[in-house]
Amino acid sequence: MNIFKVFENDIRKLLDELAAEGQIPAGLDTARLTVEPPREAAHGDLSTNAAMILAKPAGKPPRALAELLVAKLKTRPDVASAEIAGPGFVNLRLSADVWRDRIRDVLTAGTAYGESTLGGQRPVNVEYVSANPTGPLHAAHGRGAVFGDALAALLEKAGYAVSREYYINDAGAQVDVLGRSTFLRYREALGEDIGEIPAGLYPGEYLKEVGQALAERDGNRWVGADEADWLPACRDFAIATIMEWIKEDLGVLGVRMDVYSSERALVKAGAVDTALKALEDRGLIYVGVLEPPKGKKPDDWEPRPQTLFKSTDFGDDVDRPLKKSDGSFTYFSNDIAYHYDKHRRGFDLQIDVWGADHGGYVKRMQAATTAITEGKASLDVKLCQLVHLMKNGEPVKMSKRAGTFVTLRDVIEEVGRDVVRFIMLTRRNDQTLDFDFAKVVEQSKDNPVFYVQYAHARCRSVLRHAATALPGADLSLAALAAKANLARLDSEEEMALAKRMATWPRLVESAAEAHEPHRVAFYLYDLASDFHALWNKGRDDTSLRFLIDGDEEVTVARLALISAVATVIASGLAVMGVEPVEELRS
C-alpha cells in the first residue's frame, strides 16, 4: 500500500464532501494535489498542498480552506493530529498503528512490496549501452548499462511493460575503419610485419585477437584481394566477434537485452526512405542553405544547398541536414528511421541512455521523434556523465588489451559485479562519478554498498540466531505477518524504521516517473542508517535488543520488524540488479 496515494485519494473524497455541503464549488481540478512527507520530520508524517492549489478556484483564502480540510481529517481514527502550517499547508500525524500495519504489508508481499500499477502495462522501450561494435566495453559503457538496466527494472516494478534494447551501430564510416583495422591485424597474424598502426585506424591490442581468428577461419583467402572484396568480410567478421564480446561482458554485469537492433539491417530494409518520405509528405523536408556554424568566419564557410529537416518547428536550435554532399544519408537520418521503427513497433514511450558526449544531439532527436510520430511518441534522453577510475585517489593505468581505456571486464574482475552495479547508481546520471577501486570495497559507513549490505547481513544474522533461540518457531514472513503483535513496537527507532519502509512504494513510483533509479540507492542507504541506529541503540539499552529472554512476544514483533527491513532491502537491491548478502566476511 502506498499510504501517500491513499491519503491523496481520500483528500479528494473530502473535497467532494465539502462540495456536496456547499462549502466549495464542485468539480475543482485536483490534478496538482499532492500528499508527501514534509521537508522537516518534526512537522509531521504527511503534508498536503490541497488548500494552497485550490484556494483561488474555491474562492477562499488558503488557510480558510485548510481549516475545512483539517476539521474533516481530525475525525479519522488513523489521524493523530492535523495542523495548518504556513500559508495553508496541512500537516498530518498518523496513528502508530498505521505505520505498524505497513510492516505487515511488507511481510505479506515479500520482495514484491512496492510493486505498483502506475504504468498500467504501458509499453516502454529503454535503449541503453548501444556502444559502437568497434571494441570492448569500457567503464563509462558500464555506467550506462547499469543505469539503463536499473531503470528498466524500476519501470517494471512500477507496472510498465518494458523492452530492453541495444542498437548496434553497424553502418557508416566507423565500421569501415574497423574492417580496415582488422585486415591489418589479419595480415599480421599471417606473419607480415605491419609496422606502426597508421593514423585513423584502431590501435587496440584486442584487434590482434580478431585478426588471428579471421586468419584461422579464412587462411590466405584475402591476401592480395581487392578492398571491395576483403573489406565487407573483415568488417562483418569483426562486428560479429566484438558483439559477442559485448554480450559476454553484459552477461557478466548481469545485464540482459530483449532486443538487438541492427542499423545496417534497418537501412537495408528501406526504413530510412520510409521515414523521410513520411516527413516529406508532411512538408517537413526542404532544400536550403544553413547559416555558418557559431564561431566560424564567413570565409571559412561554404554554403551549399542541402536536404534539411525542419527541426526548428519542434524546438531545435537549427534545421538539420538529412543527406551528405555525396547524397548518402546522415547518421541523423538513420536515427530518425530507428525511432520511427520503435514507434511502429508500439513504443510511444521511448527512453534512450546515451554517453555525455552526445548532449548536443538530444534536441534534434527529440524534435525528430515528435515530428515523425505526429506527437504520438515521446523521447526522454538520459545522459550518463563520465566515470573517473582511481585507486587510492590516483588514476588507474589503461588496459593493455584495449590500449586507450580500462575495460568494463577489468573493473568487474577487480571488485565484483554487485559492487560495480551499486556504485554506478550512487550519483545522478548527469553527475560525474568517482570510482575508487580501494574505497568501493572498504568496510565503512562511507561505502554505501557495504553499509546497505551490512544492514541486510545483520538482519539475516539475527534471524539465524532466533531460529536457534526459538526452536520449532515458524519465523517465515507469512507466519510473522499473521502472529506478530506489532503493538509491542513502540520505540522511536522502531517507528522510524516502520515509517521509512512505508515510503518505499511511493519512492518506486516517483523514481519511475522521473526516470531516476539512483533514488533507490539513496533510499536504501537511508533505510540502512535507520536500522544501524536501532542496532547501535540496542548495544547501550538492552531492552531494545531484538532477542529478549523471557519475552517471546516482543522478540517475535522485533523479528517481524527486521524481517521486513531485510525484505525491503532485498526488494530495492533487486531493482539495482544486486544480490543481497546473507553474511559479510572480513
TrEMBL record:
Domain of life, per lineage: Bacteria
Catalyzed reactions: tRNA(Arg) + L-arginine + ATP = L-arginyl-tRNA(Arg) + AMP + diphosphate
All copies of domain DALR anticodon binding, residue ranges: 452-584
Main location as per UniProt: cytoplasm
Pfam family, one: Arg_tRNA_synt_N
Stored Gene3D superfamilies: Arginyl tRNA synthetase N-terminal domain, HUPs, Isoleucyl-tRNA Synthetase, Domain 1
InterPro entries with a match to the protein in the record: Arg-tRNA-ligase, Arg-tRNA-synth_N, Arg-tRNA-synth_N_sf, ArgRS_core, DALR_anticod-bd, Rossmann-like_a/b/a_fold, tRNAsynth_Ia_anticodon-bd
Subcellular locations according to the entry: Cytoplasm
Top enzyme category: ligase
SMART domains tied to this protein: Arg_tRNA_synt_N (SM01016), DALR_1 (SM00836)
Entry keyword set: Aminoacyl-tRNA synthetase, ATP-binding, Cytoplasm, Ligase, Nucleotide-binding, Protein biosynthesis
A GO molecular-function descriptor: arginine-tRNA ligase activity
Enzyme Commission number(s): 6.1.1.19
Domain Arginyl tRNA synthetase N-terminal: 5-94
Family to which this protein belongs: Belongs to the class-I aminoacyl-tRNA synthetase family.
Quaternary data: Monomer.
Designated name of the protein: Arginine--tRNA ligase
Species this protein is from: Azospirillum formosense
